[in-house]
Amino acid sequence: MKIATWNINGIKARLETVQTWLGSASPDIACFQEIKSVDEGFPAEIFEEIGYNVAVHGQKGFNGVAILSKLPFDEVIRGLPGDPDDAQSRYIEGVFSVPSGVVRVVDIYLPNGNPTDSEKFPYKLAWMERLKARVKELLSYEEPFVIAGDYNVIPTPEDVYDPAAWISDALFRPETRAQYQKLVNLGLTDAFRACHDEPHQFTFWDYQAGAWQKNHGIRIDHLLLSPQAADRLVSCDIDAEPRGWEKPSDHVPVVMELAV
DNA sequence: ATGTCACCTGCGAGGTGA
Fold first, then answer.
1. Sheet with strand A189-190: strands edge to edge
2. From A78's CA, which of A92, A96, A145, A256 has a CA 20 to 30 Å away?
3. Taking a C-beta distance cutoff of 8 angstroms, is the pair A200, A161 a contact?
4. A137 CB-contact burial (10 Å; exposed 0-12 / middle 13-18 / buried 19+)
5. Cα dihedral sign for A142, A135, A175, A168?
6. Could you tell me which of A4, A33, A221 has the C-alpha nearest to residue A109?
7. Half-sphere exposure (CA, 13 Å, Cβ side) for A32?
8. Is A109 a catalytic residue?
9. Helices A174-185 and A120-139 meet at what angle, rounded to 10?
10. Strand B positions with any atom < 7 Å from protein CB?
11. How far does the CA of A250 sit from the C1' of B15, in Å?
């Protein structure tokens, strides 16, 4: 089965682009971030007409995540556990039955964290700590799962066109990378890096300063796999093409194939 | 490069977030 992640940067502004991409890529499951819409504003019917089940965790104006799936949802969980006061919609889980058993797909929009001298940076690090706790719990089930999304983390200097330019940014700060590494060290596999070792493979190019034309990108959209999912990994690729389309998102889809 | 884009309020253009 094909599982994709894509920060679409607003469903209202991106509906046509998303429809075009779904038509050609035809993922079995698509995890979207930054839908920037409340649940009722997300055009679920349009996706249902082309064969998808839809689960949304939206928010007015900002953030928001949604999972589209050709398989029916056995279960949906909305919100990252660990802080009942957190009102930001950045987390949704779906559980699916497959021939080999069950697959859980977690869709995250990890906080950006800039500026780093504001409350946003500690919020990011605390959110990552909560994610680690949830992952520990999921690992105890010993089932295949995928955590897909916009991590807002540049894992290594190989994943940015100019490391020096990003060193003080919340996406590349040592604290951020260390916290991400702790998460991976629980026993997760970066699906893209398991399939590709070439540097400078990017998933985001800023709208500003001709970043796309100069290939000034960063790799911040990831699919992390549990051991049981990693055993079933077939391929993982970045689809950079939509970044060159009319009215693009600043992120592009990452697509993996899982043998189920 | 102070560079662009999306969304909100609310009807014009500035504020927020990325």
1. A75-78, A91-98, A101-109, A145-150, A221-225, A189-190
2. A256
3. yes
4. exposed
5. positive
6. A33
7. 30
8. yes
9. 10
10. 1, 3-8, 17-18
11. 22
What are phi and psi for residue A129, nearest 5 degrees?
-65, -40
Q: What is the pTM of this model?
A: 0.98
Q: Sign of the CA dihedral A55, A91, A35, A21?
A: negative
The CA–C1' separation of A153 and B5, in angstroms, is 21
CB A214 within 8 A of CB A206: no
**Smallest Cα–Cα separation from A129: which of A89, A81, A94?**
A81
Each residue of A162-207: pLDDT tens digit? 999 999 999 999 999 999 999 999 999 999 999 999 999 999 999 9
A28, A52, A91, A109: the active-site residue: A109
Instruction: Give me the pLDDT at residue A45, please.
Output: 98
Q: How far is the CA of A147 from the C1' of B13 (A)?
A: 40
Q: Are A103 and A61 in contact (CB under 8 A)?
A: no
Nearest to A58 by CA among A10, A118, A122: A10
